[in-house]
Records
---
Amino acid sequence: MRETEILQRPELICPAGTPAALRAAVDAGADAVYCGLQNETNARNFPGLNFSIPDLEQAVAYAHARQAKVLLAVNTFPRAGRFELWRETVDAAARISVDAIIVADFGVAAYAARTHPKLRLHLSVQAGASSPNAIRYFCEEFGIKRVVLPRILTVAEIAEIHGNAPCEIETFIFGNVGMMAEGRCSLTNYATGISTNMDGVCSPAGDVRYVPNAEGNMTSHLGCFMIDQIGRGESAGYPTICKGRYLCSGRTQGYYAFEEPQTLNLSALLPDLIRAGVAAFKIEGRQRSRAYVTNVVSAFRRALDDVLAGRSPEIASLLALSEGQKETQGAYRSKTWR
Amino acid sequence: MNAMPEIALGPVLFNWQPEAWRDFYFRIADAAPVATVYVGETICSKRAPLFSEYFETAIERLQRGGKTVILSTLGQVVQKTDRNLIDSICSVEELPVEANDVSALHALRGRPHYGGPMLNIYNGESLRFLAERGMRGVCVPAELSATTLAALCAVASELGVTIEAQVFGRISLALSARCYHARAHNRTKDSCLFVCENDPDGLELSTLDAHSFLVINGIQTMSHSYLNLIGELPELQRMGVSRFRLSPHSCDMVQVAGIFHAVLKQTLAVEEAAAQLGALTPRATFANGFYYGKPGHTWQSASPA
């Protein structure tokens, strides 16, 4: 990086699955924290996770007292006949003065824009806006102020979108990497009867089974489908369909048909992403523990501050965060990922 | 009840040889009892030039056969070639267009158009918003249950929007930017050499314990099972679904259309129709779970009509 270069300071957007994780993220240097309510209005609708309305009020007070923002994910797609719950959620967000809500559904976005014109809207990755015209559509129709880009674009494509989109750009930099275009996947529903888009759950724990076999190996299952086989001593990944191994003709043995299980880590691309015009960096992981949030957020806070000060970020501590999983730059580095 | 029920043929989702693609539409034009035919590449913009020389011929033949032709757009728009394909389809003014992503909605709003099954339209509020911008009909996402579909139909009927549902063929379950067909053959999307052309119904993926599960079609992941709602046609009609989409496969689609048409006209009993469909697609397993709010791969016996 050229020493004289002045880089725009992007926000660091951090996950909070619980009030404790939210405080941890704020204390570790998050510029903003995103969270969801304890129901299917958000895409991490897991048991034991998320916020009640009073939790959210306290979270906003805690964050605002420390100059951090709170973003509420209202990013699932209400099934017809159930829209009221999303309407109530949007109303509550406006009442509590969260700094923005993150939406995906046309109807939810239209309701929020019409009823609460002062409430700032971000477009969720679940909306799958992957081209300038799709982003323009959401900005023009709903006054979207920021779009979270799908994890399927290269840095060059992100730069091009930034040059053509009338809003801020947010990208993921760390955490789980989904292979399917977000908001466009009903694999879980096919296997389990629970919809990622409508119920906010991918690979529900109630449908996950691990079965030991005679050779001392283990198989993982979702619903009635085997997702992977785990050898003795291998760490057992959580069975999500897009990270499983399958058989197909022309292949002699099982292979990762979609992607190997690995963690997205774009720490080495931070300067490129800032130059591409990214206004906010998002860390995935609302399902993660408070300790994990503290570690990851502090590490990225330091890395980002280093980059902005013209220093090379210390990458080793970030690599250690992947917990032994293989790391990837996913789609971001090059089109050959595709 | 809404408009007269009719059979529609969805776009060909697979990479068929150009001549096979042309002859398929010629035969549909001449012999299939379908009212509406969707034409266009919805999966991969690299495939579109392969059959472009037959595009207009096929459309003309379909129109001469009395079919309404609707152009269908790409589901996942990322690269420049994708955006160019969207622009070229949406600039056709003589034919209605079905949008499968939001960039197409951007181009089509303000004039009459349709919403495809790859758009996320799950509720009446979304439908109302889109109808105000010119959407005249929607083919709903396949994962809707009967309860949700009925609630959506109620709003659609107020708005005068046609509701269409897929009733036959493999179900689109996910889209990606990565081509899994290329990956299966250790290639990338840019260097694929069109390896998807070898699988006219998609490339089958089985679990490690050899159970059929999914099918790969370029960037699309589909169900291994064929959706089959022949037994649910009467109930779908009662709730207000008026267009029934058959998704093309390499089996005899003229006969498939004939079977569904006969059930709609009440000239063929559901049991007999189901048996005939099974005979036409001996390798297919059928599923209807989504409709009953169950795992999509499952088969539920229809409740008595």
---
Amino acid sequence: MNMSLLESFKHYSGMSKSGINKQKTTTFGDTEAIGKGRFWSIISVFSLAVVWHFGSTLGFINPIFWPAPSTVWQQFITISQDGYRGFTLWEHIWASLYRILVGFSLGCLVGIPLGFAMGLSEKVRGWFDPIVEFFRPIPPLAFIPLVIIWSGIGERSKILLIFFAALWIMVIAARAGVSSIKLNKIHAAHSLGANKRQILQHVILPNSLPEIFTGMRVAMGVCWGTVVAAELVAANSGVGYMIMVASKFLATDIVVLGVIIVGLIGYSIDIIMRKIEAKLIPWKGKS
Amino acid sequence: MSALNANHISMTFDEPNGNRVEALQDVSFNLKQGELLAILGPSGCGKSTLLNIIAGFLAPTSGAVINGTTKLTHSGPDRGMVFQQGALFEWMNVAENIAFGPKMAGVSSEETSKIVDDLLDTVGLQDFGDKAIYELSGGMQQRVALARCLANNPDIILMDEPLGALDALTREKMQSLVLKLWKDTGKTIILITHSVEEALFLGERLFVMAPRPGRIKQEYRLPFAEEGLTKDPREVKTSAEFIAKREEVLSMIWGMEEEIMGNNQAVGI
């Protein structure tokens, strides 16, 4: 039997409820009974687009403050063909992405082992706790002047800032991951004859993956914020640099284009990370 | 020959508010190879503390646990442990959980997979080797926990309320499985439980413990575990002797309860 157009739309938009959830009468507070809300996401994006388009064409929105979608699209075509300020659009995007990937990876490489050590050893925890808790609330951008003095305005200074942004988040996530283990599991592993190294590798590490992944998703978001801000100060490429230069010439179409690019890439990375998470940690929230 | 010897074990510790708690006071017993000991008692009687001392997770304030001729000080693969729940590794499937002990000990993978296959068979999970832990029911998870413990071939199996979280019917089936494994493997088993019926049915020997200070109040030798190997569990549990013992033990525990409540009234709770 063919689904009607409305039904198939409901199906793909995640509106149709299945099984027992159809029968439930108490839904407020029951997070399983409510759908994913994809239908409302589609409506939301669509209405924003409609408001933007008609607001611009009917003259409600001043293009100096917020350009029309067609202008932004035109700029996208132009810049992706001719480039901007000596670099192609893809080079600008890659410049930002590269800084994030390197800084974020370094943050994970240092932060996760440090968080683990803090979770497992009294000495390490005592030693690093004041340092981590002191630096954590300081926005990495506050270090820009220092970082420029240390490493100049090249790649290294931006990567260092991203590194700082990711580091503290990953330390805390890894430490929380270690503390989340049930004593039962540790006792079980001991009585099954595992030594310390084996318990770390086969029990503590996999058990902490859900917290570490949550930390990575949070850190990734913060890294984007940091890289754009860092490029506003000192750079000659990158999406943040594009936005900054464009703003000096009141080219709001390029500013908005840059904002959309950052938003879309950030969102895509989060979707990829959620997929990896579902693949790697299928037991999350099910034990 | 004595398999396990608990020698004048006492355990006291100070609570953060300064109260001194006497969790165990001079507990001694001998357990022969292949005996099944059930330990029953109200909350706070020190039965979990006792099991943790035997397992080697806690050191007693005084006294010692001796296995054969060696004094036990740390946990080890000679004493397998089965917990109430949540001690399986969710990131491993059923077979990997069971293989954990042999793998850590460096047993070859062919031999390990043979052990795992045999044990899956023993606990009735033949087709569940590649299932994830969260896909299993509570009873099945406890079957995995039993198999994981047996894979290491321990001298003694310690069970900390292993069936406490299961529904009545599953619990009864699992009790029969525990008896069957006890018979087939000839292991020494110490099992802690809250349930009077379970303690009577499974305990070839039974300690009823009393709180404040934690001590063995009464010891029984019971025929019901042997009977349970051949007879239907319902038949054993509805026999006149079983019911009489159950009432005896229950009224003893009620007595302890009144003692505690009386004390509390005296201090104004």
